[in-house]
Amino acid sequence: MRRRPAITTPRPATPPPPGPPLRDYAAGELARAITCLGWRGGRLHEGVHQARKSLRRARATLALGASALAPAARLVDHELRKLNRGLSSLRDAHALTGALALLAARNEDTNQAALLLRARNAAARERAVRARSERTGDPGMHARRVLLASLLGALRALPWEDIEVSEIQAALARSRARAEAAGLRALDRGKPDDWHRWRRRARRLSQQQRALGGHSADERRDKRLAVLLGETQDRSLVQEHCGRDSPFAAIDRVPLRALMDHELVHLRGRARRLLAARAEAAGPPSD
């Protein structure tokens, strides 16, 4: 009698470890930052803007595996943070000019058009001064790019294969909780620093979702909120430049501040409604 062959149940395929794709993503962002910092001439400011975006994305990705990657990751993150902060003056000058240019375009048929154009031109002159100073201090951003190349090598050498899915999920949950707490605080107190903190934490959450390739409805809402909070920060930046050391003409500072007040009321109202819609979509908390 012929024996029937034994039936073997195939073992489920082991999912690939989540760390290496995150390593490749973060490394790609640092490589992009090195490239963008090499942009010259009229592309200098946009290069700095894009490089800072990539540095923040790399840091957000590192935070997803902080426990497994520590302590070396903390050193890499510290240097990336310091480098990013060192570029903030140039970025602020560019953001100020860009925000005013956008507002001028949106209000070209209103009474504010001339005010916004004057402010935009003043901001552009200040931006040019910052750029000349930067070119003198670090021509071609060479020193920063060399440092970034070293950090890129260090980042690639981290033990990314040790990251577990559970750690990523916990890190994402912490980021969401921090963003939501910052949002409630900003809406309750309404101070500029609270709104800025909310913006930073919402952006970190959105960047981590981007690193993980998320495209859910919740993640799209989080992205919209992060973008909206970025717009509020740009308006606050204009307000901050309406003081004694302002690049704007003295006669323009009061009406410019009043216009930004109006803009902020509108944008913060939208943020409040977006957060409410996010909470409604999430449903009541489970018992």
UniProtKB/TrEMBL annotation:
Domain of life: Bacteria
Biased composition (Pro residues): 12-21
Region annotated Disordered, chain positions: 1-21
Pfam families: CHAD (PF05235)
Comp. bias intervals (Low complexity): 1-11
Occurrences of domain CHAD (ranges): 15-285
Segment forming the signal sequence: none
Coiled coil: none
Name listed for the protein in its UniProt record: CHAD domain-containing protein
